[in-house]
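Quick one, tokens below. Sequence please?
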């Protein structure tokens, strides 16, 4: 069977934090597509509609039907990370978005690959709140798919190793290349494709993280300004692979 894999989501799936030399994001989904083709020994078709800054329901409303229109065999979905950073978020509403994706995948005969995001709380302000909301979201989503062994699960939130600073980029909110490789390895294992062992902890230079006031000036204050002005880091951005690209074995 030929594989046609499409990814939808936010910055986690777009690949922010794992930038190529030209500045373009790569990330776990690109890596998983390449690893999948390598494991099969034949090309696969790959698309990625994820855009940074998107909340869970806008991902569903803006990306899901476009992704299904490509007639994929597999669709991966993650969302809710941006929702959790906002006051008054309803965890049940985010979980409803996951249920909607599963419902539409069922209707179209598409295999869902379900991911939970990596846990950044250890390095962020409001860490206890983020940890609690992430735990609640993970439990709520897993409850929605508890009766569905056919849903592929790549659960990153419980991975305590992945929470260590060496897997995170300068802003502490997005993973670096090492973190994205670890997530890609988990996805490939969940798909039964197997991942290169070194992807679980690729060697590389440690990311130098800013501390104190310098961190707040560089990363927290710009985020607050976007919230106040109702802007998103993804405004004006287009999907990096809105149509199929062929990924050949390396």
């Amino acid at each position: 069977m030929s594989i046609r894999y499409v990814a939808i989501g936010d910055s986690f799936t777009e690949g922010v934090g794992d930038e190529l030399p030209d500045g373009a994001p790569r990330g776990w989904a690109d890596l998983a597509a390449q690893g999948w083709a390598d494991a099969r020994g034949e090309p696969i078709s790959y698309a990625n509609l994820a855009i940074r800054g998107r909340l869970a329901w806008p991902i569903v409303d803006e990306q899901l039907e476009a992704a299904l229109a490509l007639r994929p065999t597999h669709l991966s979905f993650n969302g809710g990370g941006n929702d959790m950073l906002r006051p008054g978020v309803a965890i049940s509403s985010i979980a409803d978005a996951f249920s909607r994706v599963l419902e539409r995948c069922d209707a179209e005969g598409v295999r869902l690959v379900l991911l939970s995001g990596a846990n950044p709380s250890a390095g962020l302000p409001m860490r206890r709140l983020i940890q609690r909301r992430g735990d609640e979201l993970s439990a709520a989503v897993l409850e929605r798919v508890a009766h569905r062994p056919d849903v592929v699960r790549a659960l990153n939130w419980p991975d305590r190793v992945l929470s260590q600073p060496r897997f995170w980029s300068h802003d502490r909110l997005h993973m670096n290349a090492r973190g994205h490789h670890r997530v890609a390895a988990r996805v490939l294992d969940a798909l039964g494709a197997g991942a290169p062992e070194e992807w679980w902890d690729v060697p590389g230079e440690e990311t130098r993280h800013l501390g104190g006031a310098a961190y707040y000036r560089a990363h927290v204050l710009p985020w607050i300004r976007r919230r106040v002005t109702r802007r998103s880091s993804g405004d004006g951005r287009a999907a990096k692979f809105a149509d199929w690209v062929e990924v050949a074995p390396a």
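The longest strand covers residues 241-247. Strands lie at 4-8, 44-48, 74-77, 111-116, 152-155, 241-247.
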